[in-house]
Amino acid sequence: MISCTRTDLGLLLLRLGTGGVLAAHGAQKLFGWFGGGGIEGTGQFMESVGYRPGKASATAAGLAETGGGTLLALGLATPAAGAAAAGAMSGAAAVHAPNGFFAQSGGYEYAASLALAATGIAIAGPGRLSLDHALGHTVNRGWMVPTALAVTAAATVAVVGARMKRLQESQEDEQEPLFEE
């Protein structure tokens, strides 16, 4: 029988809640479930906010959210799961950042909260009530935490940076005069 502590129970609740929300959020993108746009609709949205190509961006975000969320809920491959989910939510936060912090104004509060929760779980570990623990932590080693977070951070910076560059170029194109005087 597994002996568990308050910390283990707390991590289980955090994993189930955060992972469940992320998995559902990703399922909206991938499958159109829960009122989502599916790959087609989400791809069009991604294009409209500067993530190109749209369908590939929708697929990547959907997989990171659905896969990362499901793995977090299960407590399996926790460093990679948390990092993937945090990266996807950081990309979402970048879209909402111009609207300020609070979600009621369309800000990045919700996305940032999910990213921080996923990162915190990746760092803290899944606790004893997890598949990682049951499998002897074969995919939850100490070195995996900084590696997963660093790789995801680098990829997120590259993707968000490319988006920002496209948006800036688009804005500059709109400001150029059509005719030279």
UniProtKB/TrEMBL annotation:
<comment type="similarity">
    <text>Belongs to the DoxX family.</text>
</comment>
<keyword id="KW-0812">Transmembrane</keyword>
<keyword id="KW-0472">Membrane</keyword>
<protein>
    <submittedName>
        <fullName>DoxX family protein</fullName>
    </submittedName>
</protein>
<feature type="transmembrane region" description="Helical">
    <location>
        <begin position="143"/>
        <end position="162"/>
    </location>
</feature>
<keyword id="KW-1003">Cell membrane</keyword>
<dbReference type="Pfam" id="PF07681">
    <property type="entry name" value="DoxX"/>
</dbReference>
<feature type="transmembrane region" description="Helical">
    <location>
        <begin position="71"/>
        <end position="95"/>
    </location>
</feature>
<keyword id="KW-0732">Signal</keyword>
<dbReference type="InterPro" id="IPR032808">
    <property type="entry name" value="DoxX"/>
</dbReference>
<dbReference type="InterPro" id="IPR051907">
    <property type="entry name" value="DoxX-like_oxidoreductase"/>
</dbReference>
<feature type="transmembrane region" description="Helical">
    <location>
        <begin position="107"/>
        <end position="131"/>
    </location>
</feature>
<keyword id="KW-1133">Transmembrane helix</keyword>
<feature type="signal peptide">
    <location>
        <begin position="1"/>
        <end position="23"/>
    </location>
</feature>
